[in-house]
Amino acid sequence: MPIEAAGLVTSEKRGQFVFYALVPESLANTFNGFVQEVCPVSRPLKRESATLAEKAKGQ
After folding, report:
1. Is residue 26 exposed (0-12), middle (13-18) or buried (19+ Cβ within 10 Å)?
2. What mean pLDDT do residues 43-49 have?
3. How far is the C-alpha of 59 from the C-alpha of 43, rounded, in Å?
4. What is d(CA 27, CA 21) in angstroms, rounded to the nearest whole number?
5. Cα–Cα distances in angstroms (integers) from residue 43 to residues 3, 46, 50, 56, in the given order
């Protein structure tokens, strides 16, 4: 799957050039998911992150 289709970067064509930019939220979520799979210690962090996300939505 191309990295752009995964939502990790965006692209903008300007003339003959294509400018790419990272999508920080997607990159952070993807990295977090990877870390949780390879590092069981991170699972408590997942619960904490979910709690913080819910609190942020409520504000």
Report:
1. middle
2. 71
3. 25
4. 11
5. 26, 5, 11, 20
Q: Are 34 and 28 in contact (CB under 8 A)?
A: no
The Cα 49–Cα 56 span in angstroms is 10
Strand, coil or helix: what is 19? Answer: strand
Helical packing angle, 24-38 and 43-58, nearest 10°:
150
pTM to 2 decimal places: 0.46
For 5-35, write each residue's pLDDT tens digit: 777 888 899 999 999 998 888 777 778 778 7
